[in-house]
Amino acid sequence: MAEFEDFVQTELPLRPVVTLDEDEETLLVRRGPPKNYVAVPLQEGQVVGKEGGVIKGVDNNGSGGGGDKNYVHVQAMASAVWQVPHNLGKMVSITVVDTGGTTVEGDMTHDDLNNITIIFSAPFTGQVFCN
Predict the structure, then answer these.
(1) What percent of the chain has pLDDT over 70?
(2) Is the C-alpha dihedral spanning 73, 77, 78, 84 positive or negative?
(3) In this predicted model, what pLDDT tens digit does every residue of 12-24 receive, in sequence order?
(4) Which of 2, 11, 59 is nearest to 32 (CA)?
(5) Are residues 43 and 18 in the same domain?
(6) Which of 3, 6, 43, 84 is deepest in the core (most CB within 10 A)?
(7) What are residue 2's phi and psi, to 5 degrees?
(8) How many Cα atoms within 13 Å fall on the side-chain side of residue 63?
(9) Is residue 47 domain-shared with residue 90, that is, in the same domain?
(10) 48 and 40 in contact (C-beta within 8 Å)?
(11) Does one domain contain both 78 and 107?
(12) 45 and 96 inside one domain
């Protein structure tokens, strides 16, 4: 709870430092002077956290922190080229499996720290496990 209290506080008189814009599914965090809010987008399954000194949505993996980030990409449409936006902010290692659970090899390219492209010899559907 102390980590949360470090950046989510209230002032007197009661003016919240954090508000919620339900229409935009965004959490607003006050930075600096009153009414100076910065949007913190949250994806499903994320919680508000602090990473590298920046308040942002972080994955809630149930470990209480300290766990390595991971992502599972589901390729529902058969394709020989898979674009995987893992958004993990790191060079990932991957395991690809088809819908039958068989491990499949492909040519992977790290497009940047948040995206990879995998090219296979034939189109199919399956999952990519990014770590």
Answers:
(1) 48
(2) negative
(3) 444 445 555 555 5
(4) 11
(5) yes
(6) 84
(7) -60, -40
(8) 9
(9) no
(10) yes
(11) yes
(12) no
Amino acid at 92: V
For the chain, what's the residue count? 131
Strands 54-59 and 103-104: unpaired
The domain tally of the chain equals 2
Burial of 108 (0-12, 13-18, 19+ CB in 10 A): middle
Tell whether 64 is covered by a domain.
no
Q: What is the CA radius of gyration of the chain?
A: 19
With a threshold of 0.90, does the pTM exceed it?
A: no
Helix, strand, or coil here: 112? strand
Residue at 105 is within a domain: yes
Exposed/middle/buried for residue 79 (C-beta within 10 Å: 0-12, 13-18, 19+): middle
| Tokens matching residue 18 | 């954090």
Has residue 44 got a pLDDT over 90?
A: no
Mean pLDDT (the chain) is 74
Residue-number span of the structural domain to which 115 is assigned? 71-130
Tokens found for residue 121: 């010899």
Residue 49 φ then ψ, to 5°: -145, 175
